[in-house]
Amino acid sequence: MKKNKRLGISIIILVIAIIVMIILAGVIVLNTSKSNVIKRALESNFKTNLSQYNNELMMNLSSKFLQVQEEFNLNSVNTFTNNEIREYIKNIPEKDINKYKIINGKLAYIGSDLNEIKWSKEKGVSLDIPYIKDGLVLWYDGIYNKGIGIYNDNNNVWKDLSGNGNDMTISNIDFTISDGWNGKGLSLDNTQHTMNSNNPLKNQTLMEQGYTIEVVFQKKSIGIRRYLGGINRGFHINYYNEKALHYINDGNSDHYAYSNNASEVNKILSYTGTYFKDSVSTKVEMYANGADKNNGSYYGSLIIPYGMESSITYYFNDAIIYSVRIYDKVLTQKEITRNYQMDKGRFGI
Fold first, then answer.
1. Is there a contact between 217 and 313 (Cβ–Cβ < 8 Å)?
2. What pTM was estimated for this model as a whole?
3. What are the φ/ψ torsions at residue 111 (nearest 5 degrees)?
4. Neighbours of 101 (CB within 10 A)
5. Which CATH architecture fits 136-347?
6. What are the extents of the domains in the chain?
7. What angle do CA 314, 167, 316 make, to 5 degrees?
8. What number of other Cβ atoms are within 10 A of residue 232's Cβ?
9. Is residue 328 classed as helix, strand or coil in its secondary structure?
């Protein structure tokens, strides 16, 4: 009798367990289905808007062509600042204005959402980013860390998007939230990370040099020296009182420019340093967020720099690196401001 009673209780428990499992499975299926429905709705809405923007752009470009005929050059239609795009796509909402630019008369997606990148590719929309390309010899982008339009959470080689093969080898990375890719950049913990790439400026001579270095980064703590070594004495992201420092040494004395716009913890900043030297003059300049030029100590006497090494070593820890760009020429302030406008919308500065 007791045996039958125990058996009955066991069957009841088993039935209850099966019912609970069925309910949980149903909840999972419903949630998955709901998630898929939401994602499909977002995709449909995004692609519909994309088609509308493209159609409006084509209509406005056709209208302009009819007005000026042979004088109209499609390659001259480019937008760089946010509001310029409204000249061609008047009804684009504020939420989308940072996601798109017009490049050579074509709509381009420059946003950071991985799903929207995929959907844009499916619609045949360009993923080009209108940074200054002339003289660009090294380019890392945290959103396209493995190639144009390609992102990978487990990528230990940062692809050089300039096409010059200067890929960065990343070491001592755990691929975690605090020490790995975060969707927009490379987040590094407080252990020392020394990463390497070829130096595209290595053939510049001691007596004649001209280059621009642009870095978008965010520090997680104060008091740590972060810099790119191998380019003369190195490009220091924050060094002197947490300020960015473009530093040249001739073996005897220092020559540098730094910005009064100091880097702050958890604040994204875009820093640009330029250097020019020929037989007549030497010029060192520093910019923060496209402006703040040479706002600080500046020594610009005629000097022979330390020189270039064959590789660049990136000394970073407790920071997030969003982008690194190197040019083998000196960018103008207008060009630097244009690049900053791209960084501002792309990385949320």
1. no
2. 0.81
3. -70, -175
4. 25
5. Sandwich (2.60)
6. 1-128, 136-347
7. 15
8. 26
9. coil
